[in-house]
Design goal:
Blueprint (H helix, E strand, L loop, with lengths): L4 E2 L2 E2 L6 H13 L10 H9 L11 H14 L3 H14 L8 H10 L14 E11 L5 H6 L6 E9 L5 E8 L4 H15 L5 E6 L6 H9 L3 E4 L13 H13 L1 H8 L5 H14 L8 H23 L3
Parallel strand pairs: 3-6, 6-7
Antiparallel strand pairs: 1-2, 3-4, 4-5
């Protein structure tokens, strides 16, 4: 098969396909990773230590696993109750749970991105956003009845080398990418506190003076695609003017090569994977429910990726 080309240059696929295939196969074992069943009593005992009122019956690991099943297979809560009943017959140590308990515990479950592991290199990160549909009833109804249901946006920042998710913000469709950037960068810097972020890659939506001033303040190189007619004078951001002059001097293609702008597609790869594995719409009806559901999707994506790498 002929290799794809970009700007007349042959594309070199340097991926280790054997390792990649093994990781994909290993992801499937996560769905039946039930080691917590053997430690059920110890985990519940630890959870109830010092607790007042009615004790917990189900360990947090079980609730997180059920939330993962709920997100990946889009299994309704009543079906999840039947699922646990059938599973408890195969694994007597696992106690079945009613759907109201599952719903309540999953809604109370903290949604925190897994910690990243220091890779010993300076970090180059990429930022972008994507729309998430708020209904799964199809585009036909939207077009037929001219109903604008809107969407919500997931803004993320990722390590372009490892594809690890370093930060996430959920907003409505009216919030611009630039407004969310400072919060994403804060999350990434906290998540990778031992690794300095050396460069940020982003498309033209992040071409804003405030963002360039933040990068200059934090001593981070810009890989932001500046618009073609951008001013080369300060205008409130000397660093942006400097980057604009550099891009005009080199030309877009040479600028992209110099800044390795093509690596920005790492963030697009994460969006694609999340939507393929966990779906591209939400089922919740409230804003808070939608926000939580989307955060959960990205959290479980990172858990799946870490599991396939053997990272606990």
């Amino acid at each position: 098969m002929a290799k794809l080309e970009r700007w007349g240059k042959p594309y070199r696929d340097t991926r280790d396909w054997r390792e990649y295939n093994e990781q994909l196969v290993k992801r499937g074992t996560l769905y039946l990773s039930l080691e917590f069943v053997e430690q059920w009593d110890q985990l519940v005992g630890h959870l109830n230590r010092g607790k007042r009122g009615h004790p917990f019956i189900y360990p947090g690991q079980f609730i997180q696993w059920m939330a993962c099943i709920h997100s990946i297979f889009q299994m309704p809560y009543r079906q999840m109750e039947g699922f646990t009943i059938a599973l408890s017959k195969v694994l007597p140590s696992l106690q079945s749970a009613d759907y109201t308990t599952l719903f309540r515990r999953i809604q109370q479950m903290p949604i925190v991105l897994p910690e990243i592991h220091d890779q010993g290199d300076d970090l180059v990160v990429a930022v972008d956003s994507t729309g998430i549909k708020v209904t799964n009833r199809g585009e036909w109804m939207r077009e037929m009845w001219k109903v604008h249901r809107g969407w919500i946006k997931a803004h993320i920042i990722v390590d372009v080398k490892s594809k690890d998710l370093l930060g996430i913000e959920i907003t409505n469709e009216h919030v611009s990418d630039g407004e969310v950037f400072p919060a994403l960068l804060d999350q990434a810097q906290e998540a990778a506190s031992d690794q300095p972020i050396t460069q940020v890659l982003a498309d033209g939506a992040y071409d804003q003076k405030g963002i360039f001033n933040r990068l200059e303040k934090d001593h981070i190189d810009s890989g932001i695609k500046i618009r073609e007619n951008a001013a080369t004078k300060s205008g409130g951001s000397p660093y942006r003017a400097e980057c604009s002059r550099e891009k005009q001097k080199l030309g877009y293609r040479a600028w992209a090569d110099e800044n390795k702008y093509g690596k920005r597609w790492a963030v697009e790869g994460v969006f694609s994977s999340v939507k393929r594995i966990l779906g591209e719409n939400v089922r919740a009806s409230s804003i808070d429910g939608m926000t939580r559901e989307v955060r959960m999707k990205f959290m479980f994506y990172q858990i799946i990726v870490n599991f396939s790498r053997g990272v606990v």
